[in-house]
Amino acid sequence: MIAIGIAPPSLLSHVDPRVRLLCALFASVWIAATPRLLPLAALAGCGLLLAVIARVPARVLLRRLFVLNAFMALVLVTLPLSPGGEVLWQFAGVGLYHDGLMHALRIVLAGHALTLLFVALVVTLEPVTLAHALLHLKVPDKLVRILMFAIRYIDVLHDTRLRRERAIRARGFSARCDRHTVRTTAHLVGSLVGDSLARAQRIEQAMRARGWRGGFPMLHHFHLRVSDLAFGLLFAACLLSIGVIA
Amino acid sequence: MHISEGVLSWPVLAGGAAIAAAAVGVGLRRLPDERIPVAGLLCALFFVAALIHIPVGIASVHLVLNGLCGVLLGWAAFPVIAAALTLQALLFGFGGLTTLGVNIMVMGVPALIAAAAFRAPWPRSAALRGAVCGALAIVCGVLLMALALWLSGGAAFVSLIGMVMLAHLPVIAIEAAMTAAIVGSLQRARPALLQFRVSA
């Protein structure tokens, strides 16, 4: 089972989802446009603090950071070694360069700040709430409907896939890097494609039978309260003051 | 096929987001209302397919299938890829908010190219055309990724770009073989699906 909306109730779950999305968006733009290291480090700290306030489970947070750092390792290995600026250290024809190191540090800090803030503010939202918040923020409703159908049926298709994999393994299949594996996996994916299209047809017929005319009603209506505005303003003030002080 | 958060410069991110928004808009306009369940289910399918791994040596490669996505969806591949990437960012932390636009382009443009290649009259066999689509989609995606990195960092990113390209060589081979086999399997079992177009 694939789970979304991972966090238990916390202080942050009282904040209007629209405000949280806008805060995440604002912070992302801010981070992407900041070249200096100190503000980025401060913001990564803010992100960690928010993740703790949002009570993101440590397991989830660590897995995210692991995924991020798998790529960051590549950046840290390649960038400081590419020539540019002052040479910091040299050995056997390989040099460590100032510009490259600074660039790599900037990338690592920005990546962590962005990931931590995204996890704390957006990932903790319940998926249907997120979809409705996106609708309220004028994201095209067709796109949100695709997203909602996908959220609803990922588990169904994933279960089908696991069931079929169990069946082929029970017949003695084990994945290797060969023709047979490719052919078997292709049959699996092909049957899933057929399955999902047939299911889509049945869903549509069932929905039409219930009077569907190609749109979902909006169930969640959010009301902006003083506390939401306060959170947004506090967040913006934090960003600005970090930008000014650091 | 993701560029991580924090790597690209803001003009590249902003440009990618703007072009991706336009492309998703075109895709949505060409997607009739009654095909939205199909698009949603295929989005879930490509999400699940990306969890399937094929062992290569000591490591393994997961399926991307953006070529197949283009073949089945046409322009509607853009909104479907946008939704799938959003879910991957939410669930697994692959990519994120700032890189969403660039990542949509990195996967979506090759999907469209693959769709056009699949309609070409040559080669005659559907499986061979599938192989061309699968390989082409990854090659174009990696080239777009390299372009985004180059525009952000210039010469400093050269060795990073080299490593990214190297890491995708097995992906090209696996995608070509898998797309060929999937298209071949669909051609035999349900030939109507390959003629079926989700978007106008």
Describe this structure in words.
The complex is a heterodimer of chains A (246) and B (200). Helices cover 70% and strands 4% of the residues of chain A. With 246 residues, chain A is mostly helical. Chain A has a two-stranded antiparallel sheet with strand order 1-2. The longest helix of chain A is centred in the last third of the chain and has 31 residues, at 179-209. Chain B has helices at 10-29, 36-49, 66-73, 77-92, 100-118, 126-153, 158-189, 191-195; strands at residues 53-56, 59-62. Helices cover 71% and strands 4% of the residues of chain B. With 200 residues, chain B is mainly α. At the A-B interface, helix 1, helix 3, helix 4, helix 6 and helix 7 of A face helix 1, helix 2, strand 1, helix 4 and helix 7 of B.
Characteristic key phrases:
heterodimer, A: 246 residues, mainly alpha, two-stranded antiparallel ribbon, 8 helices, 2 strands, 70% helix, B: 200 residues, two-stranded antiparallel sheet
SSE layout and pairing:
The complex is a heterodimer of chains A (246) and B (200).
Chain A: H1 17-33, H2 37-53, H3 58-78, E1 87-91, E2 94-97, H4 98-123, H5 127-136, H6 141-170, H7 179-209, H8 226-245
Antiparallel strand pairs in A: 1-2
Chain B: H1 10-29, H2 36-49, E1 53-56, E2 59-62, H3 66-73, H4 77-92, H5 100-118, H6 126-153, H7 158-189, H8 191-195
Antiparallel strand pairs in B: 1-2
Helix pairs in contact in B: 1-4, 1-5, 2-4, 3-5, 3-6, 4-5, 5-6, 6-7
